[in-house]
Amino acid sequence: MTFVVTENCIKCKFTDCVDVCPVDCFHEGPNFLVIDPDECIDCTLCEPECPAEAIFAEDEVPEGMENFIELNAELSQKWPSITEVKDPLPDADEWNGKSGKLQYLEK
């Protein structure tokens, strides 16, 4: 099993999760993070660190967000690895908790 970053990370991109990952499985896009399912060791450390509550175990991804499982796998192959904490996006607090953000995902 792996962990999956879901919709609420879009336009927020908090990186608290990156700091605790022992295998550097996070990858960074312009306004979203993803987890490489081939690198994730299911350690569970990232999930409680996410201020946006956007990370879920693959078998616990909320209904309607199953497409993020494939999206994480796809984008982790295209985007560079991120291993250091960075500041969240400037308006992250305004976007945190809003639904319908998939349309804003920048690939």
Helix content: 10-25%
Tell me the Rg in angstroms: 12 Å
Output the CATH topology. Alpha-Beta Plaits
Order of helices and strands: EHEEHEHH
Return the structural class: alpha+beta
* Global shape: globular
Quaternary status: single chain
Tell me the span between the first and last alpha carbons. 25 Å
Average pLDDT, rounded to a whole number, is 97
Tell me the domain tally: 1
- Stretches where pLDDT falls below 50 for ≥5 residues? none
Please, how many helices?
4
How are the strands of the largest sheet arranged? 1-4
Provide the CATH architecture: 2-Layer Sandwich
* Main sheet specs: 2 strands, antiparallel
Q: What is the CATH class designation?
A: Alpha Beta
Strand content: 5-15%
Overall strand count: 4
Architecture overview:
- It contains four helices and four strands.
- With 107 residues, the protein is α+β, with helices and mostly antiparallel strands.
- It has one domain: 2-Layer Sandwich (Alpha-Beta Plaits).
- The strands form two sheets. It has a two-stranded antiparallel ribbon. A two-stranded antiparallel ribbon has the order 2-3.
- The termini are far apart.
Lay out the secondary structure:
Blueprint: E1 3-5, H1 16-20, E2 26-28, E3 33-35, H2 46-49, E4 55-57, H3 67-76, H4 92-95
Antiparallel strand pairs: 1-4, 2-3
Compose a concise summary of this entry.
This protein is an alpha+beta fold and 107 residues long. It is 21% helix and 11% strand.
